[in-house]
Design brief:
This protein is mostly helical and about 90 residues long. It has 5 helices and no strands.
Length: about 90
């Protein structure tokens, strides 16, 4: 049986279902990969999908699956810039 196609409405419904069930909205990338990927393909990023679902967006301390890179750094990477080296914490 083929997988159902994700639409914006289906992503929003899945977010509402996670909220209804009391599931985390900050660890979707780890717990529900299909929803995470669909949110990115339909909305561009998880935060925009949350906003479209009526939420305030992901909290600023959200851990990201790509090593905690900030949204600004992600945008720079997409634009072709090389990632900046990290500094050791003192």
């Amino acid at each position: 049986m083929p997988a159902r196609k994700w639409t914006k409405d289906r992503v929003i419904a899945a977010i509402h279902e996670r909220q209804r069930q009391g599931l985390s909205l900050t660890s979707v990338w780890r717990e529900d990969s299909p929803l995470s990927q669909a949110s990115k393909s339909q909305f561009g990023c998880w935060r925009k999908a949350l906003v479209a679902a009526g939420g305030p967006g992901a909290p600023p301390h959200e851990k990201r699956p790509h090593g905690g890179v900030t949204a600004g750094a992600c945008a720079r990477c997409r634009a072709g810039a090389r990632p900046e080296p990290t500094r050791a914490r003192e």
